[in-house]
Design a protein that fits this description.
Layout lengths: L2 H31 L5 H14 L7 H9 L8 H20 L6 H17 L6 H32 L7 H38 L10 H17 L2 H10 L5 H20 L6 H14 L8 H29 L4
């Protein structure tokens, strides 16, 4: 196999690994913070579920990102290299500073910037871009809203319960954490699958866009490995910075996040799991009282989210201008 296809495949799997590495923290943060499971057991359980998820729920998200966002004819080898490199570099930057930024936003920004640099505005499919942006930015709002509503419902259903109900909620978190991990990997691993399928067309290994079975297996393995390693900086951010999480908050936010991420994945909407989970945690906390949430942490996180797409797009443009001289 020639050199460049191997490079693009490797970058896609590195991105997928980082997706698991960063995403795992958002999945297990509430389980750990509420003391439902130890960090080691939570990560092991999550990693196993992350491996299974990509095999269960189809490839609708891969099709959206790989063929409906940008013109495949404009995405040459240099453009795909620049898009993946920009997403990886931005993800590493935000991870280093402990910011729960979005690898999904970074990849979308990278693809948009690379497509603009390689093919101009006509290389963007506005309908697909609209679909992606709606999914990315509406899902956190839904997470906050339904996180709040689910907690209100739980408080109503559990009114008069003794403190022993916390034991039940901790056990139920094991179920919701597994469901959340399955939905996370089914949505996020597909993003790497979509780029791999795009790379196959760009390098001449395929004449049309499709997702081969071996890319599903490779992406499932990469995201599971990233999850097993875990993102400890972000676990601290999501588990402690917003407010002191109790079992009822953890259960409610996990239930909310799993439903939104899985639903979006089945509809082909690429969402940011970190966004959805974080906003669900905030919504759950606000059900107690608005002042309970440490809004300065939410502000800092929101700023990182808003900057991700434009900055990763600019980074991809700069990388393409360099790479295009050599490929």
């Amino acid at each position: 196999m020639p050199f460049f296809p191997i490079v693009l495949l490797s970058l896609a799997l590195i991105f997928d690994f980082l997706n698991g590495f960063i995403g795992s923290s958002s999945i297990v943060a509430t389980v750990i913070s509420s003391r439902a499971m130890s960090p080691r057991k939570a990560l092991a359980m999550t990693a196993a579920a992350e491996f299974v998820g990509p095999f269960l729920f189809g490839v609708a998200v891969a099709i959206t990102l790989g063929s409906e966002l940008v013109d495949l004819a404009a995405m040459n080898r240099g453009a795909i290299f620049s898009a993946l490199s920009a997403a990886i570099l931005w993800s590493l930057f935000t991870w280093y500073f402990g910011l729960p930024s979005s690898t999904s936003h970074a990849l979308v920004g990278g693809l948009v910037g690379a497509a603009l640099a390689a093919g101009g505005p006509s290389a963007l499919y506005l309908t697909g871009l609209q679909k992606v942006l709606i999914a990315l930015f509406l899902s956190p709002l839904l997470g906050m809203l339904f996180g709040h509503l689910v907690l209100r419902i739980l408080y109503f259903l559990l009114r008069g319960a003794t403190p022993s109900v916390n034991t039940l909620l901790k056990r139920l978190q094991i179920v919701t954490a597994v469901i959340l991990a399955l939905s996370h990997s089914s949505n996020d691993a597909q993003k790497a699958m979509g780029v791999i399928a795009m790379s196959m067309v760009a390098t001449g290994y395929a004449t049309r866009f499709y997702v081969p079975w071996w890319s599903v297996a490779l992406c499932a393995s990469a995201i599971a490995l990233g999850t097993a390693v875990g993102g400890w900086r972000l676990i601290k951010t999501l588990g402690a910075k917003f407010y002191k999480i109790r079992p009822i908050h953890a259960f409610g936010s996990q239930l909310t996040s799993a439903a939104i991420i899985l639903g979006a994945g089945l509809l082909g909407g690429p969402v940011s799991s970190t966004h959805v989970i974080s906003s669900s945690i905030v919504g759950a906390g606000s059900a107690d009282r608005i002042s309970k949430v440490r809004w300065n942490a939410v502000r800092d996180m929101g700023l990182a989210w808003l900057l991700t797409i434009p900055l990763s797009a600019l980074l991809a443009v700069g990388l393409y201008k360099i790479v295009s001289r050599f490929v």
